[in-house]
Amino acid sequence: MASKAGSDNGIVETIKTVVYALLIAGVFRTLFFQPFWIPSGSMKDTLLIGDFLFVNKMAYGYSRYSCPFAICPITGRILGSEPERGDVVVFRHPVSGADYIKRLVALPGDTVQMRDGVMILNGEPVPQEPAGQFEEVFERQGPLGTHPRCENSPVGEGGICVKSRFRETLPGGRSHNILNIDERGAADNTPLFTVPEGHFFFVGDNRDNSQDSRVAQAVGGVGFVPFENLIGRADRIVFSSAGRSMLYFWTWRSDRFFKAVE
């Protein structure tokens, strides 16, 4: 009898340990950092498919989207800090509910337009300087198994996929790389947008391969993103897997451990 009681107590203690661990992990994920694995190439070459990072949820305060499944009983935003132009941000899509990661380029009240692939912010072209080429192997990438898009298409399996790279400097001095695939990409020329109060405008660094604010939500894009939908800021890559799973440690990229996100 004593043995059975001891066994029952052991099971109860194990259950308690698991529950406590889950609660601690939930609190940590909600208040501090959320793991995020890059599934697409829309932010190359800043972020590659297979990059694993933690999103800093303290950067902008908290909203209902800070909790898993948007269950936080929060209206608006608490302890909020305004994001800065140039931040790489994870946010909840206003319509689909999916989590996206893009670069914040325009703030409330800004005007923004694309003209022949050049961003015009508040009436001024954002400077771009040639920065060589971005090269990668033309092969299936990540868990989705998609091939990269190439400026030098067509490229055979295992060939070198090339994209033109430029260094873009936003107002305020923050610089980052952007990539070009098409001379006349679908979103290289846009209407003039005025960012409404309480909203932000996001663009992917891989300009011709990004679903972002340049396309309205009504036709499958992102459109303007409310402040409430911001989840956190991407500051640093922890590690990066070039394989189909982040568990394939033999495919981890040696040059991306703890790499800062520009």
From TrEMBL:
Reaction catalysis annotation: Cleavage of hydrophobic, N-terminal signal or leader sequences from secreted and periplasmic proteins
Top-level lineage group: Bacteria
The protein's enzyme class: hydrolase
Main location (coarse class): membrane
Protein name: Signal peptidase I
GO molecular function list: signal peptidase activity
Family that this chain belongs to: Belongs to the peptidase S26 family.
Membrane topology: Single-pass type II membrane protein
Gene designation per UniProt: lepB
